[in-house]
Amino acid sequence: IAHIHCEDVIGIVGENFTFPVKIDQKITEIIWTKNKDKVAEWEEQKNTTYLTSLHNRGLLNKENGCLTIFNLENNDAGKYVLDYFDSVEKNYVLTFILTVLAPPPEPEINCNISGDGLVLKCTADFQEPLNYTWKFRSITIAHQTQEVFIPMKDVDASEKAACFIKFSQIEKSSEISLTQCFP
């Protein structure tokens, strides 16, 4: 009986990507395939063999089964299957659907006056949720949201506000001078 698991994962072009495998038993044999083609193989007392596109860009951790792909490329996207046996010859099959995305662009900030304060909005055209952080006056506001409200009493028009977006290992930022918020 094989134990089966499936997970969608996302990598960014140019980054190193490691499949999130959590194996805590002793492994005796590992086979990784991509779209049914073998890409990495290891058996106890033997060296790891890397095939196809992972020949110079793959690293298999024999302790936990994790496969790392260095310098991710668009054509690395696909269905990866980890098939392994533990020391009692039990078979496990883990499936990962890897989507490869271009890095997010630099964010854009716009602002407007709303009642008794400023509303700053940070946008970046990206298909996955981003982490947003705002820096304003030496204060860091770690909002998961694209918008931040600053009461007028706290606004010094000579200041700047910065928005940072983060996804995976990539962080990008933009800055706006608060003078741009006033007509």
SS-based class: mainly beta
How large, in whole angstroms, is the Cα Rg? 23 Å
Order of helices and strands: EEEEEEEEEEEEEEEE
Instruction: Count up the helices.
Output: 0
**Unreliable segments (pLDDT under 50, ≥5 consecutive)?**
none
Q: What does it look like?
A:
The protein is mainly β and 183 residues long. It contains no helices and 16 strands. It has strands at residues 2-12, 17-18, 27-34, 37-43, 49-50, 58-60, 67-69, 78-86, 91-101, 108-114, 117-123, 131-136, 139-141, 147-151, 160-167, 170-177. Strands 1-9-8-3-4-5 form a 6-stranded mixed sheet, with no helix packed on it. Strands 13-12-15-16 form a 4-stranded antiparallel sheet, with no helix packed on it. It has a 3-stranded antiparallel sheet with strand order 2-7-6, with no helix packed on it. The model has no long low-confidence stretch (mean pLDDT 90).
What features would you highlight for this structure?
single chain, 183 residues, mainly beta, six-stranded mixed sheet, four-stranded antiparallel sheet, 16 strands, 0% helix
